[in-house]
Amino acid sequence: MKKDTYIIKGRVLHFIDEPDTTPENAYEYYKTGALVVEDGKIAFCGEASDAVSRYPTYNIVDRSNKLIIPGLIDTHMHYPQTEMIGAYGEQLLEWLETYTFPTERKFSDKAYAKDVSDRFIAECLRNGTTTAMVFGTIHPESVDAFFEVSDSYNMRNICGKVLMDRNAPDYLLDTDLDTAKKQTEDLIHRWHNKGRQLYAVTPRFTPTCTPEMMTVAKELMDTAPDLYMHSHLSENKGECAWVAELEPEATDYLDAYDRYGLVGPRSVFAHGIHLSEREYKRLAETGAAIAHSPTSNLFLGSGLWNKKACQEHGVRAGLASDVGAGTSFSQLQTLNEAYKIQQLQGEKLSAFQSFYFATLGSAKSIYLDDKIGNFEEGKEADFIILDNSGTELMDYRQSHCKTLEEELFVLGTIGDDRSIKETYVMGVCVYDKDQGFRRPPVELKAVS
Ligand SMILES: [Zn+2]
Fold first, then answer.
1. pTM assigned to the model
2. How far is the CA of 287 from the centre of ligand 1 (A)?
3. 318 CA distance to ligand 1 centroid (A)?
4. Is 98 left (phi over 0), alpha (psi -120 to 50) or beta?
5. pLDDT, tens digit, 9 for 90 and up, residues 289-298
6. Ligand 1 center–CA 232 separation, angstroms
7. What domains does the chain contain, in order, with CATH numbers?
8. Ligand 1 centre from 296 Cα, in Å?
9. Under a CB-based contact definition with an 8 Å cutoff, are residues 357 and 335 in contact?
10. pLDDT single digits (tens) 194-207
C-alpha cells in the first residue's frame, strides 16, 4: 500500500459554494465521515461506511470525532518579515523604513534566506496553512530559498522576487531594469509550475515602482501562462495621497496599476481598504482580487476593510495574515480579527462565511479552486485535523457548544496553532502536533 493512498475517518466538513445567501446548501458535513486519498488526491468524500465498502482494501487512519477540513489558504504574506513580526509603534510608511527595509537587506544571503524559509514554512504548517501567496525580497536568492523549502514539503505555494526601483534605500533597489527582468525570467523558468510551485510577478507597490518598472512587470507577465501579479493597494491614507502625487495621470490608485496592464485575473492586491466606487467596479470586471489582512490592518492602524462593498460589487476576496505586519500565522486568529473588523462597521461574519473564506473562498480568489479549497474528487489532498482541546479553556468552551456552527465560531475566535493536530499536504502528514515535521519522500511528489 502506498503511503498516500488510504481512508481517513473523522467529522468531515468542506464548502461547495459561498454561504452568504443559503448557508445550508453551501457546505457538506459528515459526522461519521471519511476521505479517501489516492496518490495524494481526493478520490471520495462522504460517509465512512460508503468509503470502506467502496475501498475495502485501503488502510484506515482513524480520526473519528475530530473535525477534518481543507488546508487553510493565506493569500498574502511576507516570509522575510518573520523575524520582525510585532514591531512597535509605526504606521505603514514609517514601519517600512524603520523595520522592514533593514530586515529585507539580509536576504541577499542565500543561507540566511533558507533558514528563514524553513522557519516560515514550519509556522505555516503548524498553523494549518497549506497554501500561501508570499513576497520574497528583491534578491533572487530569497525566492530560490523559499521555493526549495516549499518544494521539499510538496506544498502548493506562490512566491516572487520583489521589484522596486525608487523610494527605498539604495541597498534594496533594482538599479538596472534589464537585470531585474532577467533575474525574474530565470526564476519563472526555474520555478513556475515546477511540481506545485507557482510564480508571482511582484512589484511591491506604486510608491516603489517607476512607470518603467511597471512596464517591465507587464512584459514579465506576458512571458508565461498563468503567472500571478502580487502587489498592494490602498492600505493607508498617507500612502494613497502619495500615490496620487506620484501618478498624477492615474484616475485612482487601482488605475496606477491598470494603466500598465497589471489588473486582471490572478492579480492579487493586499488590503484594498480605501477604495472608490470605480475601483470596486473595475476590480470586479477584471477578475482581480483583494487579499483581506485584518490583523495587519489593525496593527498598523490602516483602516477597516469594507467586505460588504466588495461583495455587492462582486470583487473576489481572499483571507490573508500579511505576516509580518500581521500579528499571527494562524488563519483562525486572522478570522477572529476579521470578525471584529466587520463588527466595528455594524456587519457580521458568520462561522460558515469565515471557514469558507479561509478555504474555498481564498482558493477562488487566487484561481486555484480547481485544485485546492475543498474535497471534490480529483482535488489535491491538502487538509488538516483540528483539535478542539488545544488548551483547557478551548476544551471547556467547546464542551458547551451545541451545534457545528457554534463549534466553528469558537474555533475561529479562540483557536490558534494549538487547535491544529495534523497538517496533510498531497495526502502526506507533514506536521503532527506531537511528533513535529516530516518531509514527504521524493517518490510521493508526482503531480499531474
Ligand atoms: Zn503586505
1. 0.97
2. 20
3. 14
4. alpha
5. 999 999 999 9
6. 6
7. 6-71+373-444 (2.30.40.10), 72-365 (3.20.20.140)
8. 8
9. yes
10. 999 999 999 999 99
